[in-house]
Amino acid sequence: MDQIKHTYIQVDRLKLHVAEIGSESSPTVLFLHGFLEISYTWRHQMIAVANAGFRAIAPDYRGYGLSDVPAKPEKTSFADLVADTAAILDSLSISKVFVIAKDFGAMVGYIFSLFFPEKLAGIITLGIPYMPPEALQQLQTLPREPGRAEADFGRFDAKTVVRKIYILFSRSEVPIASESQEIMDLVEQSAPLPSWFTEEDLDTYAASYQKSGFLTALQVPYRSLLERVEPPNHDPNAPIVTAPALFVTGEKDFFFSFPGMEEYLQGGIQKYVPNLEIIYLPEGSHFVHEQFPETVNQLLLNFLKSNKSLLERVEPPNHDPNAPIVTAPALFVTGEKDFFFSFPGMEEYLQGGIQKYVPNLEIIYLPEGSHFVHEQFPETR
């Protein structure tokens, strides 16, 4: 993991920790972590995409991991995390990214794409797909009343809390405590860590959360799930993302225990994310990226490589690819001996296809002209 660099970016009077690997000139992949995770959760994926020629950046959200805790963590919102994400990209002069998000990071990623569609080349989520606001309430697994979860977590040191959360959330049952229990009581002290999560991994998480505590993490996502964050005049029936999208999920993820989730993935989600592909990993838990890193890495790379050209396209948000590019008067002057005409189909394109994009175009051919007609025949009018 020594290849990954660590920097801090000043955003809204907070120093936000950002892990990074890869060349600054390479296409960028933005990784967004989930609940009680930090940028470290993406260690396997960041190195893999960097080795494949991409730049990987992964922030710790405000109040998470090595990032500063806001003055009032109980006021933190999804809107803050989205604004921080955009500010980080602006600070690094990154204009367009692929987003890979886990757990509630999917919500950050999809809200980001709603506000900044021009910055999104494609989106991959793990653990949680896009869900409309009205469906999010049932994802509540921790108590929302102020102070209760804080008191529960406060009975243990940071390392024990992270250990219990990883054990709980790697199971296939929804981790909800009864009225007479607290969420931490659902895990026995003797319960082993998942085989793919080492004591060294746990120590890394513990060191980060000893610094940040859990106040912000308990506010976002759990007390912010019903927060509506959308642009003015947003059409609730319009797709959230039309860019290519992928959802990778384990079939043993507790997410599937929530009512109606399988049916939603089989049909309802297409209304919001029409270009979505879903891949199921039969033995996968909520942490498929850590449980099966090589399998997940290959899925991510397949998506990134097949859509890499989208990072190079520059067009306005919601651009209609079938609409004219220019309706103003236009002129194309070309020499008939220009090598351009040696490319297959060019003459036919100029005779008809181009009118779709530039309907008011006039074309003038200079019989002896080369590719440099402006220097070859400067006096011709």
- What fraction of residues sit in β-strands? 15-25%
Structural class: alpha/beta
What is the straight-line distance between the termini?
A: 64 Å
Task: Count the E strands.
Answer: 10
Biggest sheet strand order reads 1-2-4-3-5-6-7-8
Helix tally equals 13
Unreliable stretches: none
Quote the average pLDDT. Answer: 91
Give the overall shape, derived from the CA principal axes.
elongated
> Could you give a short account of the major beta sheet?
8 strands, mixed
Order of helices and strands: EEEHEHEHEHHHHHEHEHHEHEH
| Multimerization status | single chain
Helix content: 25-40%
Q: What is the radius of gyration computed over CA atoms, rounded to a whole number of angstroms?
A: 25 Å
Task: Describe, in plain words, how this protein is organized in 3D.
By secondary structure, the chain is an alpha/beta fold. It is 29% helix and 16% strand. The protein has 13 helices and ten strands. The protein has an eight-stranded mixed β-sheet with strand order 1-2-4-3-5-6-7-8, with helices on both faces. It has a two-stranded parallel sheet with strand order 9-10. Strand 3, helix 1 and strand 4 form a beta-alpha-beta unit. The longest helix is centred in the first third of the chain and has 14 residues, at 78-91. The protein starts with a strand and ends in a 5-residue tail after the last helix. 36% of the residues are buried.
Briefly summarize what is shown.
Residues 27-290 form the AB hydrolase-1 domain. The chain has 381 residues and is of the alpha/beta class.
